[in-house]
Amino acid sequence: MEQTLLEVSHLNKIYKRKGGPDFSAVKDVSFTLAQGETLGIVGESGSGKTTVAKMVAGMLPATSGSLVLNGQAMESRRSKDMKRNIQYIFQDPVSSLNPRLKIKDILAEPLKLYFNLRGEALNSRINELLDDVGIPQSYRDRYPKELSGGQCQRIGIARALAAEPSIMVCDEPTSALDMTIQSQILELLQELQRSRGFSYIFIAHGLEVIYTISNRVLVMKQGEVVETGATAQVFHSPEHPYTQTLIQSIPKIELPYFEY
Amino acid sequence: MSKEKLLKIQNLSVAFTKNQVTTPIFSGLSFDIYQGETVCLVGESGSGKSVTAKAIMQLLPTETASYPEGEIWFNGRNLLALHEQEMERIRGDQIAMVFQDALSALNPVYTIGTQMVDLIRLHSKEKVSKRQALEQAQQLLEQVDIRHADEVVKQYPFQLSGGMRQRVMIAMALSTRPRLLIADEPTTALDVTVQSNILKLIRQLKQQYDMTIMFITHDLGVVYEMADRVLVLRQGELVEAGTRDDIFTRPSHAYTKQLLNSMPRIYYQEQTPGAKP
Fold first, then answer.
1. pLDDT at A8 over 80
2. Is residue A258 part of a domain?
3. Which GO-annotated molecular functions does the record name (chain A) (predicted)?
4. What ipTM did this prediction achieve?
5. Does the CB of B21 have a partner CB in chain A at under 8 Å?
6. Number of domains chain A is built from
7. Can you give the residue range of the structural domain that contains A155?
């Protein structure tokens, strides 16, 4: 955990409504993300988690506020390199892959776009990416529908890896998956972080997942940040009443830890 | 807990036929549920949890589903041998079900009040006027902690929040005072705070009505909070069954252990987040 990689200040998202007051989906959200850090965002549905994530990734314009990546302000029209630097992993692993493209073509898109790879160089890079996420190279000619949900999510991760970003925004990447698959995907993400030094912004409504993977946690409620702090601190001694309610609501398994 | 068997599934097989090809879903499934207990069925997608529930309710599509073998004994009667009319009386009357997705389980074009009134009048032994039924409906909604029940009966499902809709579903399931409540992932789509309220409500109503509950979930935290006994399913096979404490402290089957190890946990003793201690 070293220098600040991303600095988000006073981010707002306001939706205009006809014949009614405007709706603030995100209100004055500020946070920083350090190199190699995982920041978890928790909150109930409608709390603005995904809106924040999409604004960070440049998929949704912010109404106001600033985003500074590596000391450079990100304008609403981002440079190609800034787009490359922040990649997104989606909740639904199947619908986030183009059903009419083969796996190799899905992975080729960012490689061609950002690195202008062609021919043999492209081919071998695709194979490397498949190795990185634990998918057999023989799957390159398959279509997404021929893969399981967990395998599709691995392809989604490989596609994000292809851009060689410094930040990965993971929006509920495991909530559509079975538990044993979920733990495999989380392990893959952690391992990639160790070897490549990514920073993650990690959204999940499953608080146990956030606890397992995050260094720091941001708690959101109705568009606002109500609490932020180191994971252990937020989970073991929450300060804000809302965070306390949230933590108390987690179904508890009151047993000491052991490997089964 | 009395040791009377309420439900006995014996050597049950289910198969689906499509385009003249018959695919067995599972075979030889056997387990019992005793009066007054809460049994949790856990397993991953495709393990047969929901098919088991729907087989008990006889809600699998009759054109495609078949039961090559086995018996489902409920309260001394084999449900597989009953006529549809007899089954209709048991379904809803004695066995009720709460689904994961309350929005699609409720009829979108009728108000909550209309749907509840129809249900109450259909299942009632004596004649009930619409007005009486509406009063009963409001009482039921109040029992599941819905305030302003008089307003809610006039609303349509889409106007309610997810937690409210799930409460309405539970109120409808309870309207007939069923002996067995089958809850199929009732809180999976809900936020944790709402989930915790719904689980509390189910536990409290179970006491009040002396119900037996079959609870389907993949969330082991929920299992720990709810279950007296746990059944672990995998690809249509019952791999392990035991009391909650046995399953969580002394799991014997490798798959149960794998499931327990894969669950992300918050450690209240050890304080080392980010890595397994």
1. yes
2. no
3. ATP binding; ATP hydrolysis activity
4. 0.77
5. no
6. 1
7. 4-249
Choose the mutation target among A172, A188, A257 for the interface with B, i.e. most B CBs under 10 Å.
A257
CA distance linking residue A69 with residue A59, whole number of Å: 16
Q: How confident is the model at residue B15, as a pLDDT?
A: 93
Q: Distance (Å, rounded) from C-alpha B34 to C-alpha B42? A: 18
Residue B219 is encoded by which pair of tokens? 């969330």
Considering the domain boundaries, does residue A55 fall inside one?
Answer: yes
Distance CA A208, CA A204 (A): 9
Q: How much is the pLDDT for B31?
A: 95
Partner-chain residue, chosen from A213, A236, A260, that has the shortest CB–CB distance to B257: A260
Which residues from A are below 8 Å from B191, CB to CB?
Answer: 44-45, 205
Query: To the nearest 5 percent, what fractions of chain B are helix, strand and coil?
Result: 40, 25, 35
CA trace torsion A183, A184, A187, A188 (10° rounding): -150
Quick check: is A254 in a domain?
A: no
Position A258 pLDDT exceeds 80: no
Task: Determine whether the interchain pair B191/A205 forms a contact, defined as Cβ–Cβ distance below 8 Å.
Answer: yes
The more confident residue out of B116 and B190 is: B116
Q: What is the pLDDT of residues A159-203, one digit of tens each?
A: 999 999 999 999 999 988 888 889 999 999 999 999 999 999 999
Q: Which of B225, B249, B259 sits opposite A251 (nearest CB)?
A: B225
Q: Tell me which chain A residue has its CA closest to the CA of residue B270.
A: A257
- What are the residue ranges spanned by the domains of chain B? 5-261
Put simply, whether the predicted model's pTM sits higher than 0.80 gets the answer: yes
Q: What percent of chain A has pLDDT over 70?
A: 98
Residues found in chain B: 277
Question: What superfamily would CATH give domain B5-261?
Answer: P-loop containing nucleotide triphosphate hydrolases (3.40.50.300)
Q: What is the mean pLDDT of residues B176-202?
A: 89
CATH of the domain at A58: 3.40.50.300
- Kindly list the distances between the CA atom of residue A227 and the CA atoms of A12, A34, A148, A203, B99, in Å, as whole numbers in the listed order: 17, 18, 37, 15, 34
Please check whether residue B48 touches A, CB under 8 A: no
Per the CB < 8 Å rule, is B262 touching A179? yes
Residue A2's contacts (CB-CB under 8 Å, 6 or more residues apart) are A34, A35, A36
Instruction: Assess if residue A221 is contained within a domain.
Output: yes
